[in-house]
Amino acid sequence: MNQNIHDILDAYKSAVAFRTDHLQAPFGEPQLSTAPVRFELSDKIHAVSHGGLALIHQMVIQSGLIDALNAVQVLKLKLPYLESDHLLSITYNFLCGGTALEHIEYRRQTKRPERR
């Protein structure tokens, strides 16, 4: 039993070490993608219910809201997420119908459909 607990703790420590490793992500910049989004209209393809979230994110980028959120110093260490990443993920969770913080993790771990 004790060995099992030690294995669980070791696995947790290695997962935290991986997430906070400076080589895994470009630190000092927002982690939410700022790549442009291309929208298509078609009679044969149906959009997902949260497809407008990409458009909202583009509006957030163009309005300068990300820089304004990052100007408020809340976090001591930004490893790798900035203030804007935390606030926007909570906001986007709410816009997608999430009612609890656990829904962010659920959406993060949900397998994404393959692109064709």
Condensed summary:
The chain is an all-alpha fold and 116 residues long. The protein has five helices and no strands.
Structural class: mainly alpha
Helix count from the secondary structure assignment: 5
The description of the largest β-sheet is: none
Terminal CA distance reads 47 Å
Poorly predicted segments: none
Shape field:
extended
Radius of gyration: 18 Å
Roughly what fraction of the amino acids lie in strands?
under 5%
Helix content: 40-55%
What is the number of domains? 1
What is the residue-mean pLDDT, rounded to a whole number? 77
Topology:
Blueprint: H1 2-19, H2 53-63, H3 65-71, H4 83-95, H5 102-109
Helix pairs in contact: 3-4
Features:
116 residues
Structure, explained:
The longest helix is centred in the first third of the chain and has 18 residues, at 2-19. This protein starts with a helix and ends in a 7-residue tail after the last helix. It is mainly α. The protein has five helices and no strands. Helices cover 49% and strands 0% of the residues. It has one domain. The chain is extended.
